[in-house]
Amino acid sequence: MPETRTHRRALASVAAAALLAGGAIGGAYLPAATPAYAQALPKTPIEAPEHPPGSFANIVDKVKPGVVSVKVKLDDTASMDDDDGPSQGGRNMQNVPPQLREFFRRFGQNGGPGGQQQRGGSRGAVGSGFIISADGYVVTNNHVVDHGKTVQVTLDDGRTLDAKVIGKDSKTDIALLKIKEAGSYPYVQFGKGAPRVGDWVVAIGNPFGLGGTVTAGIVSARGRDIGAGPYDDFLQIDAPINKGNSGGPTFNVNGEVVGVNTAIASPSGGSVGLAFAIPAETVQAVVEQLRTDGKVARGYLGVQVQPVTQDIAEGLGLAKPKGALVDHAEDGTPAAKAGLKSGDVIEKVNGDPINDAKELSRKIAGLKPGAKVDLAYLRGGKADTATVTLGSLPSDGKVASRGDSETNGQPRLGLSLAPASEVGLADQGVAVVEVDPDGPAAAKGIEQGDLILDVGGQSVSKPSEVAAQIRSAESAGRKAVLMRVKSGKGVTRFVAVQLNKAG
């Protein structure tokens, strides 16, 4: 009877576990909740949710009249098939994760529930939106209306009305429409505060052309960067979102808009509980400018920055890897005029802490040109401040210069170096002639042909100066040395290379 024996042994194990859990030790019985456990428990019971998931009907009744379906006829320049075509509103799809790329290609860009409209008919897109004022201003996604010849909105009462595009912003994927027909329209309001992770949310939209669809879930995370744009700061929600929900609102339990649904992560293009919404704070700032100016003007500091990693923090002697590390300040920019230099670590903007380079970019871009900001930064381990008058963000562009490869060694880093001027690469800096593939520099991505511009905050022009700065870092007890390196493609970056004591 092997099954019976196994069953008995299992029961015996359960009984033993129960005795241990109950505190039966050496014949004495102890209460299950010992003082150590009691201290770990909440002192007061956790309160039941204010809005348990019994019914969202009252919220829906309140806000549904302000949600619209958006229908667009596309012009001839719109691409329905290319992964990085115009329908993405300027997104660089190569930077978008594969599971998102397919969705961005199709999200809100179909001609109806079945996908693209029938052959011979005009190409179109469907999406969602919501009215934000009684005179008929409507918010949706830029990628829904981009390259649209005509735009119509269908209200909850069934009316279909013509609308015009007031302005679009591809960087945040927000567009503002205006219903052409005069009238007083039901509208919704933005939330006054950001939702917390775990808060209930309700999404209403036009998935697969099925207008007025309501789904619910919670805020799963905040501050998500999905590689969709330069100012990514998405709310992640698990309310089911599908094609056609794009541009629709996410509401909190008070019926206030806390986000605009814009993307999902899914291998198939269907909902798997990973949806992303643009936070209401970002939407409001963009909409305000689109309504008044028809475009968005962003503040411009004029620095190239990168995150402060743990290695870089050690190289700079920082206690924590926080802030935005200045690679360099462009000549003539507000940052350069304010005295910011390569190697500075920006820690605060107007008193608000800056956790990383992305957050700095979002903060500055959220301010208008001409605004004065106070920057708190570290230079050489010492705190300082600067007041900067922001410029206007110029059009996107890249500056590239070329340098090719081609002798004294630096064994501690696993590099063979030479003055850049001697090998014809540049007038300043030290050229990387050879890289030990097993050395610490190779592990950080330094390659043959790169230029080392400065080490430990000091400009270098010959290998002996690199060695001197390494010795200085070692004597200061640093675990890593911070170098500014320029690649063969002209991109400069800071690299923290672990010091190899065995060299």
TrEMBL record:
Binding site for substrate: H143, D173, G244, N245, S246
Localization, UniProt: Periplasm
Assigned GO CC terms: periplasmic space
PDZ domain boundaries: 295-356, 406-461
Organism this protein belongs to: Methylobacterium hispanicum
Record field: catalytic activity: Acts on substrates that are at least partially unfolded. The cleavage site P1 residue is normally between a pair of hydrophobic residues, such as Val-|-Val
Documented EC number(s): 3.4.21.107
GO process annotations (BP): proteolysis
Main location: periplasm
Broad EC category: hydrolase
UniProt keyword list: Hydrolase, Periplasm, Protease, Repeat, Serine protease, Signal, Stress response
Protein name as annotated: Probable periplasmic serine endoprotease DegP-like
Keyword Repeat: yes
Alphabetized NCBIfam families for the sequence: degP_htrA_DO
Pfam families: PDZ, PDZ_2, Trypsin_2
Region (Disordered): 74-95, 105-124, 389-410
GO MF terms, alphabetically ordered: serine-type endopeptidase activity
Gly residues bias: start-end ranges: 109-124
Stored Gene3D superfamilies: 2.30.42.10, 2.40.10.120
Active site: residue positions: H143 (charge relay system), D173 (charge relay system), S246 (charge relay system)
Family: Belongs to the peptidase S1C family.
